[in-house]
From TrEMBL:
GO molecular function, one term: phosphoribulokinase activity
GO-annotated cellular components: chloroplast
Similarity comment text for this entry: Belongs to the phosphoribulokinase family.
EC number, as in UniProt: 2.7.1.19
SUPFAM superfamilies: P-loop containing nucleoside triphosphate hydrolases
Pathway: Carbohydrate biosynthesis; Calvin cycle
Organism of provenance: Musa troglodytarum
Catalytic activity from the UniProt record: D-ribulose 5-phosphate + ATP = D-ribulose 1,5-bisphosphate + ADP + H(+)
Protein name listed in UniProt: Phosphoribulokinase
Domain of life: Eukaryota
Length: 410
């Protein structure tokens, strides 16, 4: 039984009873419940505190090895702060906790461990291998301001470790294979993002990581891609139809060799009419523009850089597309491109360039993947600020609750 079920008003669902090994985190959870309940009690005694705060929830979907972790590092940085695993959790936590953000990896909701999947002959991409009921319950609890005991999937052992305590952050990212799969979970998302990496690029990135960095053979990489392909097509790829923002990564069109993947063509697809998300545009909103910025202000070696902007449709919905093909020679010159883009949600002139320079060592920093991930990070910050500002009671309750929790620290 969950310790928080002692406090039904808080409605926390926990998957495990408190065994000896979970005692520490269960105790922390109990203290959290008590302090929240104290906060509620204070509400009736003059200090107005309430447990019904809300967390903004963002979903990021992509296949494995498609740059989700890299994207998350850029996002948490744009939102201010370095992300670390939660304190007190096991050595193999997949969670990143920043000042305002928490990123949870949905691999933690694998219902079948590595052995179990092998026995049943299913991949981790198959919905049968994942616990969507628990995923939904816990994301819903976090969104309504309640801490949860989340399972932890250990990628080293292939088994589930003891759960870890996750407190509701200002912004919760749920990243992984299936954040947009279950309609109940989709309904909790304030923004949904899909990273759509073409087969050629995915293959090149997998080789780069698994062969060069992890010593796997080319044959085993090919076999693993092949084994996952039909489940990817059936369960992962269709989720993009539900995304508000899609980053497509394709081979360049600037080089005649169609298999070239060292230069990328990246498209930022932004659905129209998404609440708190205004699409970025180049020069003139709604126009169709092709721009080759290479000249006195932007150094471009072969094959150069080409931008495109214009209206489009995505799964029959109206969308705007900003595209960059090619790569930057000098990142500091990105300011020239930034000055021609509008609706960037920056707080000061040059913020995109500054963010890109700050993480120049991240993969994709010299092309559209890094540029568009950075822009999406700034848009997420603005979305969060608009939600808080637009819902006065939301901001007020959160601040009140913070004060309450300070009065009775967890
Ligand atoms: N924008 C990029 N440009 C070039 N290479 C990239 C880019 N993003 C990621 N990669 C490559 O892809 C590999 C996988 O990236 P990352 O670990 O971020 O993906 P992931 O989706 O989190 O993977 P997994 O789900 O398997 O943990 C990296 O090691 C890197 O080599
Ligand atoms: O797709 C994946 C992650 O996105 C992994 O394959 C899945 O989580 C299973 O992990 P492991 O291979 O470590 O057992």
């Amino acid at each position: 039984m969950s310790v928080c079920s002692l406090y039904p008003a808080l409605r926390v669902t926990m998957p495990w009873s408190c065994s000896e090994s979970h005692l520490g985190s269960c105790r922390k959870q109990l203290m959290f419940c008590v302090s929240r309940t104290t906060a509620r009690r204070r509400a009736s005694t003059g200090v107005s505190c309430s447990a019904d705060t809300r967390t903004v929830v963002i979903g990021l979907a992509a296949d494995s090895g498609c740059g989700k972790s890299t994207f998350m590092r850029r996002l948490t940085s744009a939102l201010g702060g370095v992300a670390e695993p939660p304190r007190g959790c096991g050595a193999y936590s997949n969670t990143l906790v920043g000042d305002a953000t928490t990123v949870i990896c949905l691999d933690d909701y694998h219902a079948l461990d590595r052995e179990g999947r092998k026995e049943k002959g299913v991949t981790a991409l198959d919905p049968k291998a994942n616990n969507f009921d628990l995923m939904y319950e816990q994301v819903r609890a976090l969104k309504s301001g309640v801490a949860v005991e989340k399972p932890v999937y250990n990628h080293v052992t292939g088994r589930l470790d003891p759960p870890e305590l996750i407190r509701p952050p200002n912004i919760l990212f749920i990243e992984g294979l299936h954040p947009l799969f279950d309609p109940r979970i989709r309904s909790l998302l304030d923004l949904s993002i899909y990273l759509d990496i073409s087969n050629e690029v995915k293959f090149a990135w997998k080789i780069q990581r698994d062969m060069a960095e992890r010593g796997e053979s080319l044959e085993s990489i090919k076999a693993s891609i092949k084994a996952r392909k039909s489940d990817f097509d059936m369960y992962i790829d269709p989720q993009k139809q539900y995304a508000d923002v899609i980053i497509e990564v394709l081979p360049t069109r600037l080089i005649p060799d169609k298999s070239a993947t060292e230069v990328l063509r990246v498209r930022l697809v932004m659905r129209e009419g998404v609440k708190h998300f205004t699409p970025v545009y180049l020069f003139d909103e709604g126009s169709t523009i092709s721009w080759t910025p290479c000249g006195g202000k932007l150094s471009c070696s072969y094959p150069g850089i080409r931008f495109f902007y214009g209206p489009d449709t995505y799964f029959s919905d109206e969308a705007s597309v900003l595209e960059m093909d090619g790569r930057f020679d000098r990142l500091d010159e990105l300011i020239y491109v930034e000055s021609h883009l509008s609706n960037l949600s920056t707080k000061y002139y040059g913020e995109v360039t500054q963010q890109m320079l700050k993480h120049a060592d991240f993969p994709g920093s010299n092309d559209g993947t890094g540029l568009f991930q950075t822009i999406v990070g700034l848009k997420v910050r603005q979305l969060y600020e608009q939600i808080i500002a637009g819902d006065g009671s939301h901001g007020l309750k959160r601040e009140q609750l913070r004060r309450c929790l300070r009065l009775s620290p967890v």
